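User: I'm new to structure prediction. If I give you an amino acid sequence, what do you actually give back? Let's try with this one:
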Amino acid sequence: MGLVAWLAATAVHADAEVRTIVQADAEARPAERVVSMNPSLSAILVALGAREVLVGVDAWSKESRDDLGDLPSVGGLSNPSLERVVALRPDLVVVVPSFEQRDFRAQLRGVGVPVLELDPKSWDEVLATIHALGDAVGRRAEADARVAAIAAARAEVESAVADRARPRTVLVLQREPLFVVGRGSFIDEMLGAAGADNLGAGLEGPYPRAGLEWLVAAAPEVLLDSSTDPTPAADYWSRWQSLPAVRNGRVVGLGPGTATLPGPWLDRALRILARAVHGDVVAESAP
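Assistant: Good question. You get back a string of structure tokens that encode the predicted 3D arrangement of the chain. For your 287 residues, that looks like this:
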């Protein structure tokens, strides 16, 4: 199950707030045995220095991260395993609400496993998720520091691009079929902060499916490609010379998840996007 599927599955909860759902009899103390059912939540926990509390992770996290490869997999978005989770004796399971795992979450609560549901769709919700996980595992200071670094990076990037023209930009999540970043997600907000005019915001939903006809008509000046396709972005899109981004050498490949994971490194993602859109306008990393 790819990252696009994770993003699309969680995006259906457009009106949900970041929230906590914990069994009423759960003790108010930091969790020591945590199962993460989502790659974003896994990444946040590791970034906060809480790798040692993880006892199981989702299949995507296990397969895509070397530092989590030794942990048991508890299944993916569409096939979570209640038996595997319960066997790990967690004192907390962290999930992003999705339709696919609705019954699974109910089953966890039914057998008395504490569940923390977090829904990081927007920029503010990602930051709130970092704080919520920090609180859950006794890493509030680390969460505060990470959120502060993200906020500082946004201020830096917005200042650096404030007087620059905003190029017409498309961020591709998947090539075939074509999925792009639409409006209302944290990625859309990051594109705006990085000084881009996100053309996908004119489509319906945060991660809409688009067509090549739409892309040609949109005529992006910058094409950012975050797909998992192994063909280099510039080589793949060279077939469409009618695109201004292709003709002018403004096709930029982004590593999958580099700027599209609602996780702990939005500061890095913002700088990457700003450099992709405007060149060496900001440093690659914090001073």
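You can read the tokens as a compact description of the fold. Here is one thing that stands out. Residues 183 and 201 are 4 Å apart (CA to CA).
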